[in-house]
Design goal:
The complex is a heterodimer of chains A (271) and B (231). Chain A is built from eleven helices and no strands. Chain A starts with 9 loop residues before the first helix and ends with a helix. With 271 residues, chain A is mainly alpha-helical. Chain B is an alpha/beta fold. Chain B has a domain of 120 residues: P-loop containing nucleotide triphosphate hydrolases (Rossmann fold). Chain B has a six-stranded mixed beta sheet, with helices on both faces. In chain B, strand 6, helix 5 and strand 7 form a beta-alpha-beta unit. The two termini of chain B are 35 Å apart. The model of chain B has no long low-confidence stretch (mean pLDDT 87). The chains are: A mainly alpha (271), B alpha/beta (231). Chain A: This is ABC transporter permease.
């Protein structure tokens, strides 16, 4: 038996700061998730971002073929890339967190693994996948001259982070709720389909009539997407958004999500 | 030391909340071996889960000044698509210990050979148990939780488990759930009998086993008869 005493003892393990332990656990869960989801066969974990890339690519091709979707001077590729990538972000993160606990419950026997770690790992993995897909497609389209470079890369980045934060908060909240109420797990997929067309994937806010726009902009992800699009091709459009509103909603969702995850931890009962 | 003060645990059922453990007070000192008896559903595994920290108690407090293992040879944490080696790697990662020496140990101890690189889903239940036990032995704890595991594997493997657990770790505290009187009698210095959510403490094995048998409804008329039957 290798002795723990020589290098890291479990005593030392308990003394590690909780941040170190958290990082270690989330890292381990992330790698486990990667392996269990994609395995080691053929291209393995590359699927992580090839899958969202193929989705985005398919949408881009379809929209480019039917130029009718929108009537402005915005390059269709840039439009599809920003719209569909943002959709993947706020739809897939909650999707991955719904019922995440059930399949990972037995891991809670390891004292340092918490419910929040399980959600964090899934959210991070999804964020990495969607971001990689977004960046890689962006570079590919740019180098093929289908897409102009962003006018303000920092604003694009900020918009992306804002979307990611929204996705993470929503994922924690929906995931936590799904542990309490089975109905939430059932309702999230149709709900996300319902929100999809409303969230600006296929149009910009300026194309909507005034009163419809005001209602649509209650959706935080629409605001974040408008902000991101302004960063990419702002000179070609008039953007409508309220970053403060998105940040406030994100903060509330994060807080609610974290406390729901805490409650899920207290309610755990593995039979 | 592990100290449970006034611990209760409720679970929701369709008929409302059910109290599985009520007002348990219990102290486990370093190096103590505590045997646990009780019929199915009496709350033995619930206690193990509470002490391991997998679940919080509904009421009361649990103080832990010792590091506590996960339930020994627990196979539930395995993911079917991961290989045996992946599962070892995962445990090493979350405990922050070196993989290589521990993997060597698991390979030798579990005797799984090339199967360590195959998905756990392809293992027989005996192979899973061997892997789980071997992984449990790679991290050192002050207190081990042992929930009905010794029935696994063949004679030779059981003997190696015994050496690993009761000889190499004879100074560690242990909580042992078992229905086997030989196993409990030979390995424990204290006994807990679970009945209807409460716990009785006993020092004397024959006394506790006699009561346990009585609670199963297959009791002996006298303790002497029972001892004779156990021979």
């Amino acid at each position: 038996m290798p002795s723990n005493k020589s290098n890291v003892s479990t005593g030392a393990l308990l003394r590690d700061s909780s941040w170190t332990v958290n990082r270690r656990v989330v890292g381990a869960l992330l790698l486990r998730e990667l392996l269990t989801r994609y395995g080691r066969n053929n291209i393995g974990f590359l699927w992580l971002f090839i899958e969202p890339m193929l989705f985005t690519l398919a949408i881009t091709i379809v929209w480019s073929a039917f130029r009718s979707v929108h009537s402005s001077s915005i390059p269709i590729v840039a439009f599809a890339l920003t719209g569909y990538s943002s959709l993947l972000m706020w739809r897939n993160m909650p999707g991955r967190c719904v019922g995440a606990l059930k399949s990972n419950m037995s891991l809670l026997f390891h004292r340092q693994v918490t419910v929040i770690d399980i959600y964090t790992a899934r959210i991070l993995l999804e964020f990495m996948a969607t971001s990689t897909s977004f960046v890689v497609l962006g570079i590919v389209f740019y180098s093929m001259e289908w897409l102009p470079a962003p006018e303000d890369p920092l604003q694009v980045l900020a918009g992306w982070v804002l979307l990611g934060w929204f996705g993470a908060g929503l994922a924690l909240t929906i995931g936590g709720l799904s542990e309490k109420f089975d109905l939430v797990a059932k309702l999230w997929p149709p709900m996300s389909y319902f929100l999809m067309p409303l969230s600006g994937v296929a149009y910009i806010a300026d194309a909507l009539p005034q009163n419809a726009r005001e209602i649509a902009l209650y959706l935080p992800m629409f605001n974040a997407l408008e902000y991101l699009r302004e960063g990419w091709f702002g000179s070609l459009m008039t953007a409508h958004y309220d970053v403060g509103y998105v940040a406030a909603v994100n903060a509330v969702l994060t807080f609610a999500g974290l406390s729901l995850a805490r409650q899920a931890q207290l309610d755990t009962s593995e039979e | 030391m592990i100290k449970l003060t006034n611990v209760s645990k409720d679970y929701p059922t369709k008929a409302g909340w059910r109290r599985v453990l009520s007002n348990i007070d219990l102290t486990i000192n370093p190096g103590e071996r505590v045997g646990i008896l009780g019929r199915n559903g009496a709350g033995k595994s619930t206690l193990i889960r509470l002490i391991s920290g997998a679940e919080p108690p509904t009421l009361g407090t649990i103080e832990r000044n010792m590091s506590v293992s996960w339930p020994l040879a627990f196979t539930g944490g395995f993911h079917g698509t991961l290989t045996g080696a992946d599962n070892v790697r995962f445990v090493c990662r979350i405990y922050g210990v070196d993989f290589e020496p521990r993997f060597q140990f698991v390979r030798e101890f579990s005797d799984l050979g090339i199967y360590l690189n195959e998905p756990v889903a392809t293992y027989s239940s005996g192979m899973r148990a061997r892997l789980a036990f071997a992984i449990s032995m790679t991290i050192d704890f002050d207190c081990y939780l042992i929930d009905e595991v010794m029935a696994v594997g063949d004679e030779r493997f059981r003997e190696r488990c015994r050496v690993e657990l009761f000889e190499k770790r004879k100074d560690k505290a242990m909580l042992i759930v078992s229905h086997s009187h030989r196993y409990l009698k030979g390995n424990c210095d204290r006994f807990l009998l679970f009945r209807d959510g409460t716990v009785e403490e006993h020092k004397d094995f024959e006394e506790v086993y006699f009561r346990y048998k009585a609670s199963l409804g297959e009791g002996f008329a006298t303790k002497e008869q029972m001892v004779a039957a156990m021979q």
